[in-house]
Amino acid sequence: MSFLKKLFGTLAQKPWEENQVVIDNTHSGRSFNLSNQMSAVIIIFGVSTAIFSLIFTGYLYSLPPEQDTTFILKTTLVWVNTLVLVMVTFFFNKISSDLKKNLTNKIKKNLIYVGALSYLFLFLQLLLWYQLMKSGNFVDTNTYFSSFYIFTTLHGIHLLGGLFFWGKVSSRIFKLDEKDYANEEKNINALSLYWLFLFIVWIVFFAIMFIYNDAVIAWCKSLIA
Amino acid sequence: MSEDLNNNKTIQAQSSETISGGGSGISPDIDYVRPAEIPEQDLYHGHSFITKWVFCQDAKVIGIQYFLLATFTGIIGLILSWLMRLQLGFPGLAGFMTAEHYYQFVTMHGMIMVVYFLTALFLGGFGNYLIPLMVGARDMVFPYLNMVSFWSFFVAVGVLLASFFVPGGPTGAGWTLYPPQTILEGTPGHGMGILLMCISLILFVAGFTMGGLNYLITVLQARTRGMTLMRMPLTVWGIFTATVLAMLAFPALLVGALMMTLDNILGTSFFMPTILKAGEVLEYGGGSPILFQHLFWFFGHPEVYIVALPAFGIISDLISVHSRKNIFGYRMMVWAIVGIGALSFFVWAHHMYVSGMNPWFGFFFATTTLIIAVPTAMKVYNWILTLWRGNIRMNVVMLWCLGFIVTFVNGGITGIFLGNVTVDVPLSDTYFVIAHFHMVMGIAPLMVIMGAVYHWFPLVSGKFLDEKLGKWHFWLTFLGAYSIYFPMHYLGFIGVPRRYFEMYDSPYMTSAVGMNEFISLAAFIVGAAQFILIYNIVKTLKIGKPAGHNPWKANSLEWLTPTVPPEHGNWGERLPVVHRWPYDFSVPGVKEDFVTQTTAPSEIAGSKVEKT
């Protein structure tokens, strides 16, 4: 609400009036107290949110009344993958707090954990695909699995994009002296936000595709019965 | 949070002190600007021809690259339209043209003109060239990414044009690419054609996202000192808002193209229902073709405003400069741009009244469509009121501006017809629709592009385009366009359907025959008239009249660079400092009839400049 209030406050300015001129002359030229990197991550959020929302909307729009999604319940890998992403988010959170305390060794160590766990996540995703295909559930089996594959592919590409920048930032950090770490704070914070977003998208995916589907609904009903 | 706004309280306090101490309000304190806070940008200056003109990171060069490539694709679109009109006006005259060719030309013409010409030109061309200059930045905030953006567009165009040379040719499903017919046998280009189209669109969206990221962050975070959001020229507001729309609407096109590609090559059924073909059930099933229509138009309608909003912004600035008056209702103009942008996401299904959707849904979208006409009409009134009693310079730029207003009003009014379900249903898929959208988002934005080219060419090249040739160009285009599209409304009323290869011997449409011939002749002339501009540009670059600094006596920053054309980095050693909005024209008490944005208040003491 306060953002909207301030936005409308800006749009209500009268730049041609004498009082406003004095106010405007003291303006620094920036609208938000954010780094360019952080601004970029926030905008990428917006675009990605639009993409993933449209895929989910499309999935819910065309969800056929009867389709066999039971296999997805048998695999525990989706739960494991979710846990891996929780751990990545946890370590990124630790990096942000270590940065404030200037604990450089811990930053390096946790950055390695983040990268390793992210690659592990991608590997486990591929393993999940392998399990699905082995059980006869391919991309063209039904709309559920088509959406499942397209979503996990896009999420994986998104993660790979993040890993590219993680690699660049990490390689710089490992070469820096301790006193220069503060210069990388903007990049690390932006990366941290990026991973948090990846985690949120995954949770939404998990809720919609894994929890909200016919098989689960039927399973819940059987429990109640 | 917004620093603009966080600082408001302290700034208010400062300002009240300054004003009370100043008596008349013009005191030395009024010139105060805060010290620079944004660090200097490291720029990569190209040294070889390749790094300076090909893989260049200067936003101005990238803007020109976008402009040239978009114009090239636009000329291909123009040639395709000639071929279509040749068939419609004089069936059979082009012996090689089959119905399949005709559908392919229709499809490629539509997609090229909307996405690869107009969008690329307004956002990629004008956006890159003007944003850093108008907000007082040295370049875009991520120059390398900006360069990659252009080359993605380049590859996207290459892939699109490659579809002309693959077996089956380009897709002929109509520019809306509706499934299931798009990927089924019987539709031209149902294999490689549509595949390349989808890949090209995905590349275009990926490339644009990189560019859009730059435009948004440059406008929000890299303006020069004193340049508040409400001191930005309306051109920047238009491009900025259109970019926001594009960042939210293009994902729908991306998702649609991606899903259709999977339906096409992997056999998924996102958009494919169960289909019976020659007594045989195809492997598809369970998908929804209407879902694609929703996705397409969720992109498609904001796309109209992605083209229109930059045009609105640019035309506002051109009218203000060339009528020597401040733009009437600046705040209202900004609100209208933002309001139209927001509303544009709530009108998409007015393109789908005949898709069989729930009538209440149609009622909702008809209402939102009519609501969006309100801020649009406000803009038209404000343009006219800016001209009212202005010191109008009736030059080529102004001719294009006036041509735009008239054309936009014409196209807009027929849009109100089509926004109503009861009127739209009988007119749907007729030439009335073709006439409407060509007027409102074809010819009208084209007039803005032309006006902008004549206006900013002296900045880009340091020379004036030839006025006499420009007037020929304008009148042939203006009168010719009306000769094409006015009769088309009539064709629509008598029920001539769009996308038909030939009318054959229909006894109901005899009056359409002569009219189609007339329209085609006019189309050939209008198309040919565009080459006057190309000749004019070539001639001017060789022997044109030097324009010097700020030839139009404008106020905005792009005209205030130390060198013309501006060099990489734009501003020499020091970034400009902004003291006012860009619309202080014909201010009482000032010697000249313009006050640039960098003029300090003390330099024009005694004027009523701050009370316009």
Polypeptide structure, described:
- The complex is a heterodimer of chains A (225) and B (612).
- Chain A is mainly alpha-helical.
- Chain A has a domain at 89-216: Four Helix Bundle (Hemerythrin (Met), subunit A) (Up-down Bundle), CATH 1.20.120.80.
- Chain A has helices at residues 2-11, 18-25, 36-61, 70-74, 77-101, 104-134, 143-175, 185-211, 214-224.
- The mean pLDDT of chain A is 86.
- A two-stranded antiparallel ribbon of chain B has the order 1-2. Chain B has a two-stranded antiparallel sheet with strand order 3-4.
- The two termini of chain B are 31 Å apart.
- Chain B has 16 helices and four strands.
- Mean pLDDT of chain B is 92; it is low at 1-26.
- Chain B has a domain at 395-544.
- Chain B is globular, with a radius of gyration of 25 Å.
- The interface between A and B is large, with 51 and 82 residues.
What is this structure's SSE topology?
The complex is a heterodimer of chains A (225) and B (612).
Chain A: H1 2-11, H2 18-25, H3 36-61, H4 70-74, H5 77-101, H6 104-134, H7 143-175, H8 185-211, H9 214-224
Helix pairs in contact in A: 3-7, 3-8, 5-6, 5-8, 6-7, 7-8
Chain B: H1 3-6, H2 8-22, H3 49-54, H4 59-89, H5 99-135, H6 143-162, H7 192-221, H8 234-265, E1 276-277, E2 280-281, H9 289-323, H10 330-343, H11 359-387, H12 396-419, H13 421-427, H14 431-461, E3 463-464, H15 467-493, H16 510-543, E4 545-546
Antiparallel strand pairs in B: 1-2, 3-4
